[in-house]
Amino acid sequence: MNKLALTIICLLSSFVHANAATQVSGQIRSNTTWTKAGSPYVLNGTIEIEDGFTLTIEPGVVIECDERIDVYGYLQASGTTADSITFKPKKGKEWWGGLRFYQKKSDTLRFQYCHFENQGQVMLHFDIMHIYISNSYFNNASIVVDNKWGPHGSLIIENSKFMYSHIRAGGVEMFIMKDNFVTASIYAEHTTNARFYRNNINGGTYGIKCHATNAEIVDNIIANTTGIALDIVLSKLDRDIPCSGNIIAHNKHIGLNTNMAWGLVKGNSIYDNKIGVAHSFYPADSQLTYEDNCIYDNDSLNFYNYSGADYHIARNWWGTIDSSVIESTIYDNTDDFKRGRVTFMPILQANTTCQTYTPPAKIFEQEKLIAKIGIYPNPFNESFTVKTTDNTTLQRVFVYNLVGKRIANVSAGNKQQVTIDATSQPPGMYLYVAITSDNQTITGKIVKD
To answer: What is the model's pLDDT at position 148?
Structure first.
């Protein structure tokens, strides 16, 4: 078969596929299956699934969404590694209205190997329902649970990636986040049980904001946030499974903030934040204990006592064994008569439990790079320009030094180039991460003379 014939066949195949779209509108009032053969499904207006009926979406289906999908019944969306299910705006639209669930049954709703693009948010209103999400990708598509009469039901998210997409669980009986990569904030609000295991949270205002009756926060990495990396408020930490093994580093404000919290904070590494630990209101019965933590090399202070009560924090490593140096990194009654006195002896004599984290060069891992990036000048003296070499535009550019600290976060406003001022940075090698308008990620090295 010659190349011309093959090209014609490919074009014809594309033509047939382009005209095979299934148009959907109105209400779904019977059990319905959307198949890969009928894909893409183009939705017109808001789609409603009636209570008592199920919409099943098969692997490989693409849904081009117009407004919202309101689910009063049941929706089953389980893709596979080879064939994910994609929800995205229909052609000509930048955003769509997202999914809304109004489920009042104790069923389990599953999203597996699903890809959500530019949808405002997945809004879940449910009483006793259970939501399970795994191996899925959210890009500008946040999850919000709002159980005003909670706590009820559960939300479990595993092995998923959230790019510029936050997760907010309000009024949930059980909230579990495990082995996820998140570039925004995670909120557990008025939740009975919250479990955070081995998540990598890189960016956002908060890393984790936890307001839960019982909380387990273990082996997470929280870096490059602009507000509070780990905020534990009105929460009880499990003493058998304490807040432990977390790396909280490279955050622009507070690493760990505790306010009316109970339990044990043990074996965490808290460094290279503006303030390492901020300890707020301390009720008499709280018994919050810090031990075996590495709290050191934070820019302004290692420990800030916002409370008016005295506090004893012993058996931690402060980066030195010199008590006068340690005391100079603690803000308490010696600095402000309204603050309580902080005592910290005995201290750990070595940093045997400390962990560090350096963000990889490919910090936002994507599947395949298409666009090409030009950097000039390289090496540079004061500033450099990032520019695409094709018609792709840029969303944002990040720059990191070699210890993993973010030194620049610049919005490119969907232009083809952006200039970054690094005048205040010392000479040396840096890593850049450029996010293109089609959500490709390109990384590389640049040198300042």
So the answer is: 63
Low-confidence ranges of the chain (pLDDT < 50): 1-19, 362-371
Residue carrying the six token digits 């205040």: 424
Instruction: Show Cβ contacts of residue 231 under 8 Å, excluding neighbours closer than 6 positions.
Output: 206, 208, 209, 210, 254, 257, 259
Interval 225-238: pLDDT, tens: 999 999 998 888 87
10 Å CB burial of residue 382 (0-12, 13-18, 19+) is exposed
Angstrom distances, CA of residue 139 to CA of 72, 81, 201, 418 = 25, 18, 15, 22
CA–CA distance, 31 with 49 (Å, rounded to integer): 9
Q: Which of 374, 384, 350, 373 is nearest to 441 (CA)?
A: 373
Quickly tell me which residue has 């909280």 as its tokens. 248
Give the predicted TM-score (pTM) of the model. Answer: 0.76
Helix (H, G, I), strand (E, B) or coil at 69: strand
**CATH-assigned architecture of domain 373-448:** Sandwich (2.60)
Separation between Cα atoms, residue 20 and residue 427, nearest integer Å: 57
Lookup: tokens for 120:
């405002």
